[in-house]
Specification:
Number of domains: 3
Number of strands: 16
Helix content: 40-55%
Number of helices: 13
CATH superfamily of the largest domain: Alpha/Beta hydrolase fold, catalytic domain
Largest sheet: 8 strands, mixed
Shape: globular
Radius of gyration: 25 Å
Length: 494
């Protein structure tokens, strides 16, 4: 390619990049967004309408391993309809300095509701809906309307009207489970999964219409700026790819940095065009996992290079996995394999660009960096803290020992790929550890509420151990508010 053509492509790419950054930061007319601190240390986005007061209040809670930016679309659309909206970082998530537990998150919602309230509408996605349900049951939050997005909260006997918003392909709450709720109105999107529910225009518009009806307002026309932001993200990414492609050859002493430079250009473009509605900003707590993922990816890529496996074969692999995910639609594929496939697709493209005018090692470095950073954006577990319940009874060691063992849960609507639960005794404390898809990671304490009922305060799950006539534990029932009970059979010791 001639130098003139290279300069022309670079100029067009820079224009695309600049236009993408501008478009990706457009907000609906009449809406202002600012970052605030609620109740002293809770980071939140405040969405402010410019119309005449009084403005009804909406409180928004994100899902597990997410942040306040996740439900930006809902806050923006409701602010355009005349609501003051607060999207907060739950404890342990985003920029929150606190540590997460089920009890702590519910308390935080109650505290914020008192500060910004009275709350007219509450919106909770996934875990945020479940935590909101706990805050309602405890009486600390009393909204006029509860909107659960991809969630099945329990609001108690005297809870507010409940609106369920979900996608047809939700990995955790299939349509049959949602339709079984007779105490709620359901709006089902035909094309969304659990993650896309946070951005689905059909669900966002349904939330605005229901919220406006609750407070006696006329809903405005559907928001449109999200389309410009989406176009801006695409333009920004294309611009970044173009700039990376046109990079000249580096001097020999700096040639090692080509892969780093190509990946840095793309990551900067991604952060600049998506940070408004997704938590992509660097966090020190992500660094160890990202560095480990980069190292593993680079090792695999270098082995592939030694075996003379062509770089483009990773693109074919990623495309095949992505197509398989769409066709199969299983929870494991959608939740884990599809993000991996998308990150691998992008990484392979950037690897090819870095290899252009560089070496295979440059491409491998670019791929490893993008994959390490990208994979950790999909799931970054929060900082957790185990808070014992206010009342803890003391059990005899023999009663605790009867619960010790391994339990196997068959696949169901809660544990879609099944679960294996190990219970052990550590001093006077029962400790659990689960293996499976979508389970609580790491060891967790179990606090006795009775001789057979135990509580996990990190996620609010209750375990009820089932005994036979001889007093031997044969099974355990897993209960979590808003989800069906699951039974795990105790495995016999070898």
């Amino acid at each position: 390619m001639s130098a003139r053509a290279n300069r022309f492509i670079a100029a067009v790419a820079i224009v695309f990049f600049a236009a993408g950054v501008v478009l990706s930061h457009l907000i609906e007319p009449g809406v202002r967004v600012k970052t605030v601190a609620l109740a002293g240390d809770t980071p939140a986005l405040q969405f402010l309408p410019t119309g005449p007061e009084p403005h009804p209040v909406t409180l928004i809670a994100h899902g597990y391993a997410s942040s306040k930016e996740m439900l930006f679309r809902y806050g923006e659309a409701l602010a355009a309809a005349g609501f003051v909206c607060f999207a907060m970082d739950l404890p342990g998530h985003g920029a929150s300095p606190r540590s997460y537990s089920f009890i702590e998150a519910a308390r935080a919602l109650e505290e914020i509701a008192r500060v910004v309230g009275p709350v007219d509408v509450f919106i909770g996605h996934s875990m945020g809906g479940r935590e909101g349900g706990q805050a309602v049951r405890e009486g600390g939050m009393r909204p006029k309307l509860f909107i659960a997005v991809g969630s099945l909260p329990e609001l108690g006997e005297h809870g507010p009207p409940l609106l369920l918003l979900a996608g047809r392909f939700d990995e955790f709450f299939p349509p049959a489970l949602l339709k079984a709720r007779t105490d709620a109105r359901l709006v089902l999107s035909p094309w969304s999964d659990h993650w896309l529910e946070a951005y689905d225009p059909l669900l966002v518009n349904a939330a605005v219409e229901a919220a406006c009806a609750t407070v006696g307002k006329m809903p405005p026309a559907a928001p449109t700026c999200w389309r410009w932001r989406l176009a801006g993200m695409v333009l920004g990414m294309l611009g970044a790819l173009g700039v990376a492609f046109c990079l000249p050859k580096l001097p020999p002493q700096w040639a090692w940095g080509r892969g780093l430079l190509v990946s840095a250009i793309f990551i900067v473009a991604f952060v600049l065009t998506t940070s408004m509605w997704y938590d992509v900003m660097p966090h020190p707590r992500r660094f160890p996992l990202q560095i480990a993922a980069m190292a593993i990816a680079l090792l695999v890529l270098m082995i592939a290079s030694r075996l003379r496996i062509p770089q483009w074969s990773f693109f074919v692999l990623a495309a095949a996995v992505a197509i398989g995910c769409v066709i199969k639609g299983a929870i494991f594929l959608v939740a884990l394999a599809l993000p991996f496939a998308l990150v691998l697709l992008v990484g392979t493209v950037l690897g090819g660009i870095a290899t252009h005018r560089g070496s295979r090692l440059d491409g491998d470095i670019a791929m490893a960096i993008v994959m390490g950073c990208g994979l950790c954006l999909w799931h970054h577990p929060p900082k957790t803290h185990d808070i014992p319940p206010s009342v803890v009874i003391k059990l005899d060691a023999k009663l605790c020992d009867a619960c010790v063992g391994q339990y196997e849960f068959a696949p169901d609507n809660v544990f879609r790929t099944g679960m294996k639960l190990t219970i052990r005794r550590q001093g006077d404390q029962l400790v659990g550890q689960a293996r499976g898809m979508g389970v609580l990671r790491g060891a967790f304490n179990l606090y006795p509420e009775s001789e057979t009922n135990f509580l996990c305060t990190i996620n609010g799950a209750q375990l009820t151990f089932i005994k036979n006539d001889q007093g031997e534990v044969t099974a355990v029932i897993h209960h979590m508010a808003g989800r069906p009970d699951s039974e795990g059979k105790k495995l016999k010791n070898e």
